Amino acid sequence: MLIINADDWGRSVAETDAAHACCKMRRITSASAMVFMADSERAAELANETGLDVGLHLNLSEPFTGKGHNQTLQHHHNRVIRFLKRNKYSQLLYNPFLRKSFSYVYEAQAEEFYRLYGKWPARVDGHHHMHLCANMILSKAVPAGTKMRRNFSFWPGEKSLVNRAHRALVDRWLARRYRLPDYFFCLLQCIQQGKWNRVESLARSASVELMTHPVVAAETEYLMSGEFSALLQRVPTGPHALL
User: Fold this and answer.
1) Count of CB atoms within 10 A of residue 24's CB?
2) Is this structure's pTM higher than 0.85?
């Protein structure tokens, strides 16, 4: 099954509208929603009206641009952002002094998701993939059994052996507690690197999540193309809810 997921739902009007246009044309099957952002409220209304399958796009790396968050949340969120943006290796390190901050930030965003969508997030992924940082993985703040986004899938030669080994270790750890798709790819990379034969073949017998950002012109153009429409006719598609 191929899951076409639009990230950054609710981050801004432009991003929500681009994804919503794809939703109406049935070129995406799911979306990942950001809360406490500029268009979060309207985006929730659109998703609830259309019945779009939506999960929580956990934000640990970007300031909130919407309303509704208190000073305590702002304080903890700023601490998390500063730590994760300190250098490119910060997300690999567990900071015990930020254990409370990471948990508080997750719980606040999950509660806001519940307020907007009327249900707890059954699926969680992360803005800039920060849901895979050491503090989130080891904190177990996300309830067991939740659907979770795995690391990108790569073939031998595409990344170093150490890089692939680390990703595999993290995915095995996640799989003990959460429900993961079998494979995960980025639409733009598939377009640029010609991975469609692999993706199509895998989607016939496994669950494949394809991440897209419809606000990017090249991605929307491909999603709306006849080539992509033909692909959707050849492989089973569906939302994360079917995992």
Assistant:
1) 10
2) yes
